[in-house]
Design goal:
Blueprint (H helix, E strand, L loop, with lengths): L1 E7 L11 E8 L2 H9 L1 H4 L3 E4 L5 E2 L4 E8 L4 E6 L3 E7 L4 H10 L15 H7 L2 E2 L2 E2 L4 E8 L4 E6 L20 E11 L11 H4 L8 H15 L7 E5 L5 E3 H10 L5 E3 L5 E4 L1 H7 L10 E4 L2 E7 L5 H19 L8 E2 L1
Parallel strand pairs: 2-5, 3-5, 4-19
Antiparallel strand pairs: 1-2, 6-7, 7-12, 8-9, 10-11, 10-12, 13-18, 14-16, 15-16, 17-18
Length: 337
């Protein structure tokens, strides 16, 4: 277990915020977690578990201890002719794992290609893109419980997966350290191309392979989203809001350009937060520090010198403008600390 003090966090968060933590402890195994629990000086401090830092915004120096997740390992625990179960350490890079699955023709994650972050973060956030969510292929999640100091296992049905949410973002928030996620993937490929224009893209392709679909998904993401290594960002900053269908129809009469999408709740429809922000004119109001991305207004960008507080101030401007124009209050997807 490696311990650092006054640790600079700029390279640990995709917004590239110049903040520092009182302490940072590198976690590479369950044994490190047990050792951490024994060190009451650090265990009783305010703490945050940090994976790849691609969904977090530091607004100031962190007073407490960062548990940096550097656990590694991919293990096939069961397979037959149809399925494979893979246990993956939570610190593994999620897209590297997707690449591993595509290479081995373990199917079900192709549409989530190119999403930055860790495997543990993917489960916490229930990441989704292009008509897929990671929860669809999760079997169970293993975690260290900071209260009982035990390793526990929770089945998918008890993870309370929802739109960009899970039990780890509500009742278990800050109470656990996810150690691994077990996935169940198919060995027979059935392409998921119902989202957006994927069906049109592949309409003349007689045989679609996982590699082809992954490559196209990554191309689409790169066309729309900035690389956080160049421009600090955390991808989608806000969740896409949902409205009852009756309210949506009323809104549509005022703003006929609005697009609506199906929701898991049949009584609701989903709107594009990016479109709402775009209509409010944020692409036309450039700022040298912080703004929205030119190809996707849902992405808030640090152009180089913004502080976390600058970004939060900009976030509040967006929320206020959208609420005044559409009577819809946007909810951040990013974890703000």
């Amino acid at each position: 277990m490696l311990l650092y003090s006054d640790y600079l966090l700029k390279d640990c968060n995709s917004f590239k915020i110049n903040a520092k933590a009182d302490f940072l402890i590198e976690i590479t195994s369950a044994l490190d977690l047990e050792n951490f629990a024994r060190k009451k000086k650090f265990f009783n401090l305010n703490r945050v578990v940090l994976g790849n830092g691609t969904n977090i915004l530091f607004t100031s120096d962190f007073k407490g201890v960062i548990l940096k997740n550097n656990t590694k390992g991919i293990e096939i625990v069961f397979q037959n002719d149809d399925h494979v179960e893979i246990k993956v350490a939570s610190g593994e890079n999620f897209d590297d794992f997707v690449a591993y699955c595509v290479k081995n023709r373990f199917c079900g994650l192709e549409n989530l290609s190119g999403i930055p972050g860790s495997v543990g973060g993917a489960a916490v956030q229930n990441i989704g893109a292009y008509g897929a969510e990671v929860s669809s292929v999760v079997k169970n999640v293993e975690y260290f419980d900071f209260e009982s100091l035990e390793i526990k296992n929770i089945d998918k049905k008890d993870c309370n997966f929802g739109y960009r949410s899970s039990v780890f973002k509500n009742i278990l928030e800050n109470k656990t350290f996810i150690t691994s996620v077990t996935f169940v993937l198919n060995k027979k490929f059935s392409p998921n191309i119902e989202y957006g224009n994927l069906a049109e893209i592949f309409k003349d392709v007689p045989i679609i392979t996982p590699t082809m679909l992954r490559r196209r998904i990554i191309e689409m993401r790169n066309e729309k989203l900035p690389d956080f290594k160049t421009f600090g960002n955390a991808g989608s900053f806000f969740k896409n809001p949902e409205l009852p269908k009756a309210k949506a129809e009323c809104l549509k009469s005022k703003f006929p350009e609005l697009k609506f999408y199906p929701s898991s709740n049949e009584k609701n429809v989903k709107l594009s937060a990016g479109q709402l922000i775009d209509i409010c004119g944020f692409k036309q109001t450039p700022d040298p520090k912080v703004g929205v991305w030119e190809n996707q207004a849902l992405v808030v960008v640090n152009y180089g010198n913004a502080t976390g507080r600058d970004i939060v101030s900009f976030e509040k401007k967006i929320i206020k403008a959208v609420k005044e124009k559409f009577s819809i209050e946007l909810e951040p997807e990013v974890c703000i600390i």
